[in-house]
Amino acid sequence: MAEVDPVRVPTPTPEAAPDRRSPVIGEGCRFVGVLTFRGEAWIEGDFQGEIEARGTLGVGPRARVGARLRVDELIVAGEFEGDVVARHRIELRATARVRGNLEAPRICFEEGCIVRGHCRTG
After folding, report:
1. Cα radius of gyration (the chain)
2. Which residues in 92-122 are b (16+ Cβ under 10 Å) and which e?
3. Nearest alpha-carbon partner for 88 in 52, 56, 43
4. pTM
């Protein structure tokens, strides 16, 4: 019998590895409706509606979101208007602009973020 060489799979380089922040709604896209997911999702475009998730929702720096959210974790770097109930935490980055009500056991505010609304923790 002939000897067979093992199959070698190339190791992906950082440039070839998939973007860990692959958007669900990309920049330049607009979505109106209801979004549900498990895991992690990022919005880089415009979203209007309602989101229910078991996981982390990220709002990118150029995103505009108007929604009612119920998620495990929310990270906001862009514009958000609406009400949020996060089961674990909310993180508002320095570029975040938020108008609405936030509720979570923990809320992290980076210096520079703007919040107009009510926050409830605990």
Report:
1. 18
2. bbebbbbebebbbeebebeeebebeeebeee
3. 56
4. 0.81
**Which run of H or of E encompasses 46?**
strand 46-59
33: exposed, middle or buried (Cβ count in 10 Å: 0-12, 13-18, 19+)? exposed
Q: Is 15 exposed, middle or buried (0-12, 13-18, 19+ CB in 10 A)?
A: exposed
Assigned token pair, 62: 């150029």
Span 15-64, pLDDT tens digits: 333 345 667 899 999 999 999 999 999 999 999 999 999 999 999 999 99
Distance of CA 60 to the CA centre of its chain: 7
Nearest-5° Cα angle at 62, 59 to 67: 45
- pLDDT at position 77: 98
Nearest to 41 by CA among 14, 17, 65, 16: 65
- Domain map (residue ranges) of the chain: 23-121
Confidence grade of residue 8 (pLDDT, cut at 50, 70, 90): very low
